[in-house]
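User: Can you predict the 3D structure for this chain?
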Amino acid sequence: MSSRATDSKNVVQSVSRALAILNCFSPDETVLSVAEIARMTGLNKSTCHRLIGTMESDGWVTQHARGTYRLTLKMLRVGAAALGSQDIRNDAHPILVELVSNLGDTGYLMVPDGTRAVCLDKVEGAFPVQVNVIQVGSTLPLNAGAAPLAILAWREDLLDELATSNLVGFTDATTVEFQDLLKRLEETREYGYSISRDDIVPMVAAVGAPVRDAGGTVVAALSLGGISDRFRPPRIAEVCKAVVDAADRLSARLGYAHSS
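Assistant: Here is the predicted structure, written as structure tokens:
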């Protein structure tokens, strides 16, 4: 008997369905109707209505307007607990603060989550023009953005998952052809860092570098992002070196011993 079959004995279907409903909400889908939730989950409307009613009664969702619902701030407590359990975030934060303090742009810590990368931490710099595209908890597909690309370049297992899915595009600069992505990842490995320019939002650029755990597996990436004009020669060389150095310091904190 497979482990999947064994594990299925412990699955409570109603809980699984409720979690599927919660999973429908995202930064892009903050308010949903029962009909929309039914379509997204594949559940029938009456089941969705009963589950939504239970979650509303327990304070997890609230009615936004007639027939539509949104998550309550109660979810923030759960999210904060999840973030607090991430030791890498605690190790990364002071390094991220120093990086941002020295260069003035916005710093990010991102970790893989399936075929996407989630932002665990964000530190804004002192430069007057800041880019607020990604927030803590936001996710990006692994084929877009400096940090996701820096992760993907050294994670063949994640690349295999991505190979069977359609690559998400945001702008004309997003890499959406798999062969083009492979070439870009090869360049990232060659340089030791990734450069993202205009592929999520026009006129926004970033530099990302991989973070390794004690076993050498890339488990995260640090990145620095801002307006594109600040990520051009000759400054870009300084930014790349600073981001790589910061990522290497975090890797060392996680127990990674770099071999020359």
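The first helix runs from residue 3 to 8. Confidence is low (pLDDT under 50) at residues 1-6.
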